[in-house]
Design brief:
Layout lengths: L4 E4 L5 H18 L4 E5 L5 E4 L5 H4 L2 H7 L3 E3 L7 E3 L3 E9 L9 H16 L6 E4 L3 E4 L2 E10 L3 E9 L4 H7 L15 H4 L7 H12 L4 E2 L7 H15 L1
Parallel strand pairs: 1-2, 1-11, 3-4
Antiparallel strand pairs: 2-6, 3-5, 6-10, 7-8, 8-9, 9-10
Helix pairs in contact: 1-8, 4-7
Length: 239
């Protein structure tokens, strides 16, 4: 497997951070090149719906509007998440021919999440791949993930909870309409937990699990305006 290029970059606005993930995917799909591992963590709270999530089913709209919490919609599938401080975001942007296990959605989930789980065993040996696309510690979720697949590449991105309180998630997100079997219908407060590890150490462990010496990576600034506009249009349609 070719080495990943590392991009540890948080942009000022939530929409810019979502757009950069999508711009990286678009560039790799159209032009090829090196796979990318990106990390980011927003300094403000915002809600992100999955491509097929229903706003009224997933979000407490009154709480979000009252507290000024933005609601955006990403291009990938998966469920609705609250992102912001205490929630480390990562993205893997990979050519589909990078590894045989990227051939379909299920094998990709297992291939990537089992490797990330192993990287987190340094702090939590009980971390494991659960459900369709989660990471959990002893049955409590610390990470949700989603994919966006194009003709030649895929975006696999997710969050790792290291400091975000479950009661904060419960304030803005409703009980999900769809849930993995292992959740057992538990509310956010008893289903979610954090991993007790510094975010910088988590980033280093994940990066090292893919290649020993990540290389710095430029980011596709020329594609950003179009990606931002697409997300804003998508999000406006949500509301």
């Amino acid at each position: 497997m070719p080495a990943l290029r590392l991009l540890d970059l948080t942009l000022p606005l939530p929409v810019e951070n979502l757009a950069l993930d999508e711009a990286l995917l678009e560039e790799l799909d159209e032009l090829g090149g090196h796979p990318v591992l990106r990390f980011w963590e927003s300094d403000r709270l915002f809600v992100v719906l999955g491509r097929g999530s229903r706003l009224t089913d997933e979000v407490d709209l009154a709480a979000c509007e009252g507290d000024g919490i933005p609601i955006l919609r990403r291009a990938s599938g998966g469920g609705t998440v609250l992102q912001g401080p205490g929630s480390l975001s990562y993205a893997l942007v990979l050519p589909l021919n990078w590894h045989p296990d990227l051939a379909d959605i299920r094998s990709t989930n297992r291939f990537i999440l089992e490797r990330i789980a192993s990287a987190l065993h340094e702090w939590e040996p009980g971390t494991s791949f659960q459900g369709i696309s989660d990471l959990a510690i002893d049955g409590m979720k610390i990470s949700g993930n989603a994919q966006r697949r194009t003709k030649n590449a895929l975006l696999f991105h997710g969050t790792i909870l290291h400091g975000m309180r479950a009661d904060l998630v419960a304030r803005y997100l409703r009980h999900p309409s769809r849930q993995p079997e292992y959740r057992l219908d538990r509310p956010h407060q008893t289903f979610l937990r954090t991993i007790n590890a510094p975010p910088q150490a988590i980033k280093q462990a994940i990066a090292s699990s893919w290649n020993d010496v990540p290389m710095d990576c430029a980011w596709p600034t020329t594609r950003m305006p179009r990606a931002i506009e697409t997300i804003l249009v998508r999000s406006q349609e949500t509301l």
